[in-house]
Amino acid sequence: MEKSRMTLPTGPDTLCFDKDEFTKEDFDVDHFVSDCRKRVQLEELRDDLELYYKLLKTAMVELINKDYADFVNLSTNLVGMDKALNQLSVPLGQLREEVLSLRSSVSEGIRAVDERMSKQEDIREKKMCVLRLIQVIRSVEKIEKILNSQSSKETHALEVRSPLLTGQILERIATEFNQLQFHAVQSKGLPLLDKVRPRIAGITAMLQRSLEGLLLEGLQTSDVDIIRHCLRTYATIDKTRDAEALVGQVLVKPYMDQVIVEQIVESRPDGLQTMYKKLLEFVPHHCRLLREVTGGAISSEKGNTVPGYDFLVNSVWPEIVRGLEENLPSLYNPGDPDAFHKKYTISMNFLRTFERQCGSQASVKRLRAHPAYHSFNNKWNLPVYFQIRFREIAVSLEAALTAVLEDAPAGSSFCLLASHRTWSSLQRCWSDAMFLPSLAHRLWRLTLQILARYSVFVNELLLRPISNESAKDIKNPVVTSSKDPSVTQGNSEDQGGGPSESKPAASISSTQLVYVVADLDRLQEQLPELLETIKPKLEMIGFKNFSSVSALADSQLSLSACVPPLSGRIVRDLSESCFSYLKSALEVPRLYRRTNKEVPTTASSYVDSALKPFYQLQSGHKDKLKQALIQQWLEDALSESTQKYCETVSDILHSVRKMEESLKRLKQARKTTSPNPGGPGGGMSDDDKIRLQLALDVEYLGEQIQKLGLQSKDIKSFPALTALVAAAKDQATAEQP
């Protein structure tokens, strides 16, 4: 308090700290210094502290000077203070003794009151126990009196009493019995209750037997009032589960044992559906009265219903599950996946229909939370079924993804069996004959695995060398395993047949590469169709967030990434095949030099041979590939081969020019006037014929490129090649007279 009222002198405004910081209770020197260092340097802080210290010292001196008289007279004012204090000590001691005596008296009074209150509480509890015991005795005697009064009239009254009257009497007994049970529980452990307990047990057994008999009688006679009174009595004594168990044992169990018979189910193709149909008929035919009384039926009157019962959930369904497990164990056998799928689908349809019979959402929730419901679902060994299906698909797919590529079956939209089998495997995963809603996540993963496996297979094909196939082989379809016997039979004619059988496993033809690209393109086009098939099935199980389905798009991108390398290999193979014929231009000088052949007027045959693979690709695969892709392949392959061809023609013309210059120098050296060796009569020289023949070949090549649907200007190096031979042709024609 004193510290809070302390007023410090005010310093100049230039100080880097607040003077009130020193009067705070939580003042800390380290914190004060670190906080000031954020604003000023330590030297400035020191100067400010010294300045404020001088102010404090001056203020203290002024304060002492102001109250100097009080400070001087302080010792004088305290003279005689000890005597005054001694005079006060005696009356204060007496007062303390009186207070302690009064406190002791009050404590004794409170303790006496607490003891009396405890005794009264104990008496009250004993009184309540006695009253409860009295009530137990009265209830037992009252029930026994009712029972004795009824037994005394057994020869007359019971013979004419109606079941309804018996039900009303039992309801009275049940009401009294409920009170008896309540007071007996409250009086648990008392000796008198142990003496009365045998009488209570007898009453309980009698009441249980009477209720069971009355309920069975009401069910047999279809008397709604008897059933209502009986169920209300069960509810009164809190034995609703006993009533449901009784109905299950007496009414439901015999019917289930009669309907669920394995021999009858297996003797007919639709035996399982027929059995389930009969099981569903049990509820409207045999549980109609129970549902009307308990409010489970739509036509039930709310005022006359007995709540607290659910016979479909607690009586009918457990007996159905028990009957299926005991009488039809083969139902859950996953050994035959097709039969298992059929049984599971039919059973789940039966389960959904049974849920609709429950009549309310609350009843359906109770059914789905029932142990028998979980037992029924857990009996279906879905993981084993999926493993069998997975093995079937994997074996079938791996059998197609072999070293020897086979043709797809007739009518397939794919070219290769591997692609056809991949697509059929994807379709099979989501077909109605295999798909199960509970396995949707596993089938989705299998779908991605199939696409990934096919992508790996295509990448493995890229590592194979391209086999040497002749022009005739290019026209033929892909070599299949069915043709292997013919290869074996030809071994007697050709010793090289043996090694040729082992090579297809490690090589791939250019035609097969084209088929792979066509299948990749086709598969990517059909993946959206597969996704449209998958979405409704995922929505069926409540799946609404389709963002994770983008994994399928990732798989599609993985397949798309395989196309450029395949296209590169196809282009390279076409280019090499084309240039293998175009390099025959090297033979042109040999054909005309010193052979006295006529002046060329047509192109060489090697040009047609060089373009033959291009025509075969364009005509043979136009229905499998997009025209734009074919044109791109042709353009890239022609660009590569034309560049090499241009270099070859350039070398030929260069050698021709050098040969021509050498001959001229030789003639000048010999000073001879012999005629040109190209032919008599001063015709075209052999070198000019060579130039003219190359020009004709290049012109014809350009015409054929136009016929392929390409523009010669788009072919790299072709304009340079055209200019090269045009100059040579001009030279040849210019030298003619």
The helix content is over 70%
Low-confidence stretches: 154-165, 470-505, 672-681
Give the terminus-to-terminus CA distance.
Answer: 134 Å
Instruction: Estimate what percentage of residues fall within beta strands.
Output: under 5%
**What is the β-strand count?**
0
Number of helices: 32
Structural class: mainly alpha
Mean pLDDT: 79
State the major sheet.
none
Rounded Rg: 55 Å
Q: Which term fits the overall shape? A: flat
Outline the structure in words.
With 737 residues, the chain is mainly α. 72% of the residues lie in helices and 0% in strands. Helix 8 (163-186) packs parallel to helix 10. The longest helix has 72 residues, at 81-152. The protein is flat, with a radius of gyration of 55 Å.
Fold topology:
Layout: H1 2-5, H2 29-37, H3 42-66, H4 68-72, H5 74-77, H6 81-152, H7 157-160, H8 163-186, H9 191-221, H10 224-236, H11 240-259, H12 262-267, H13 271-286, H14 288-294, H15 311-327, H16 337-357, H17 361-369, H18 371-378, H19 382-400, H20 417-429, H21 440-462, H22 471-475, H23 484-489, H24 497-502, H25 510-540, H26 550-560, H27 563-582, H28 588-592, H29 605-620, H30 627-670, H31 686-707, H32 718-734
Helix pairs in contact: 6-8, 6-9, 8-9, 8-10, 9-10, 10-14, 11-13, 11-15, 13-16, 15-17, 15-18, 19-20, 19-21, 20-21, 20-25, 21-26, 25-26, 25-27, 27-29, 27-30, 30-31, 30-32, 31-32
Name some characteristics of this structure.
737 residues, mainly alpha, 0% strand
Task: Put the structure in a nutshell.
The protein is 72% helix and 0% strand. With 737 residues, the chain is mostly helical. The longest helix is centred in the first third of the chain and has 72 residues, at 81-152.
